[in-house]
Specification:
By secondary structure, this protein is mainly alpha-helical. The chain has two domains: about 60 residues; about 40 residues, no CATH class. Helix content is about 50%, strand content about 0%. The longest helix has 27 residues.
Length: about 100
């Protein structure tokens, strides 16, 4: 059994732990408070990077092709509506961005 650590070492450890809690709490709050276009897949990446065991290269920083990206967003949106019991608008399964009139 290891002898008890001196109080000054425990105090330093406590200070480091408190700082880590503050750092992680700030990252979680930033993620939670993101709204609109600030709330994106990159927010998850930033949150995961706040963890000391996350390696940046393990997270894929590349976006999928635009068509696939928009389709995933659309699917997520409809899934969220459905999960909350809200009516899901009818769709013709044609991505809205392929409509010539809808393009900016």
């Amino acid at each position: 059994m290891e002898p008890p650590k001196p109080v000054h070492i425990l105090e330093k450890m406590l200070i480091r732990c408190e700082a880590e809690i503050d750092r992680l709490s700030a990252a979680i709050r930033k993620h939670r408070d993101a709204k609109g276009h600030d709330r994106c897949w990159e927010n998850d990446r930033e949150l995961y990077l706040a963890l000391s065991d996350t390696v940046a290269s393990d997270l894929d920083p590349k976006l999928p092709p635009e068509c696939e990206f928009r389709q995933r967003c659309k699917e997520y949106y409809f899934q969220q509506l459905s999960a909350k019991g809200k009516p899901v608008p009818p769709t013709d399964d044609k991505p809205w961005w392929t409509d010539k009139e809808s393009k900016p």
